[in-house]
Amino acid sequence: MLLFQDDGGGMDPEGVRRCMSLGFSTKKSKTTIGQYGNGFKTSTMRLGADAIVFTRAIRGSNVTLSIGLLSYTFLRRTMKDDIVVPMLDFKIQDGETVPLVYGSQGDWDSSLKIILDWSPFSSKEELLQQFQDVGSHGTKVAVYNLWMNDDGLLELDFEDDDEDILLRDQGSASGGVTKGQKEIVQQHISHRLRFSLRAYTSILYLKKFDNFQIILRGKPVEQICITDELKFKKVVTYKPQVTHDSQVVSVRVDVGFAKEAPILGIFGMNVYHKNRLIMPFWKVFQEGSSRGRSVVGVLEANFIEPAHDKQDFERTPLFLRLEMRLKQIIIDFWKEKCHLIGYQPTDPNLRSQYKATLKDSGGSASHVHHKNSSARRTGGFSSNLLPETYDDVATAGFPNNGFHLQSTGQAQENNMDSEGLDEDLVEIGSSGIFDPNFMEKLSEENLALFSRREELRQRDTQLKQTIEDLEHELEETKRKCGQLAAELKVRKNQQHLHYR
User: Is 158 helix (H, G, I), strand (E, B) or coil?
Assistant: First the structure.
């Protein structure tokens, strides 16, 4: 059984019905995600077959206790055609817990019987005992009959870590050459969040915990601020063009190298929406090239809409423009600072200095890195937060960012041991089979076509509406013509009678 419990405001009888009804939503907030949509139902049913909710609320002078059961086992075994969610409500009256009946007493009794038959509790008294540790207000959700894998084992692993809940058989990691490097990869948050609930919740919210705490299996979750984990960090301002007549939006993008770089080759952008993590370590570039290696970024993109499961974003023109701009930001950062983690500089001047230093140091890349760090400390390469602004004034018009492919279509990458940190950038082959600007041109054309399609869809909708309006006017005109014809006929008949 999985137990989730909070000491929040709880839900009154109306609120818990909204929570457990499929498809109900009152999403109006501009700063938070979710309010009684389908998230509760789909997430609990993904974890286990059945879930029971206990909630206690205070609304004015009224204190209510509510119990609801969402049971796939009950619906399947009784072969129900409709989704039946039994509910029980109680109120505190003169210090006593008494049933609160909204429909008929028969419905209340029927709900009690279903809950007792299909939940882990065998009496009304046992149900009410579940409120003893809820306090004066709060909610408790128990998910039971948890799903199993093909081997008959629980999908969730509770044994390997007493302070965590893990996804079974998801902990293997590739990457790293030596045993020590592999351990670094396996312990990094970018790897652990795939299977560790503690790791995932540690970066789930962008802002620091200030008025709440997450406690997992008796131990508080320590929040990890990804931006604090970056080195050679830089701040970039991105201004997306949301709509022509809308207020200008300004998005802060923190970008830097992972502190374990270059041993840790992970890269990606962590995109939040209204403080909630949507896409962790999103690889805007395909893996394989050294360009962008170990570059990590963080941003809050409230101007685009997340998908219904909050694990992705809708593929709108706004999202595609964001993706293109993040590629540009990563490339610019890499070109400016890749030499600080041992790669050859892309700037010709820096590259000549790099090779000269490499020659003087006898070929040891570790010495080069040390000298570069010294230059950075003396002002040669500033590691302070450097402001930079990208204005999204058009869907196309991307400058050449220097993104190159080999003529073979494959990326070159050397071993990342201490003597292999001077890996050169991947350059296009002399045969020129691939155009360096091909990827950007293709992205721009796709985006332009996507935008054109949306415009045509809007025009089609407008034309259909115009046709409907004209048809309505035509029917109204026909009706008026009919009335005028009838009146004219009546007048002709009256005149004919008058002459007679």
Answer: coil
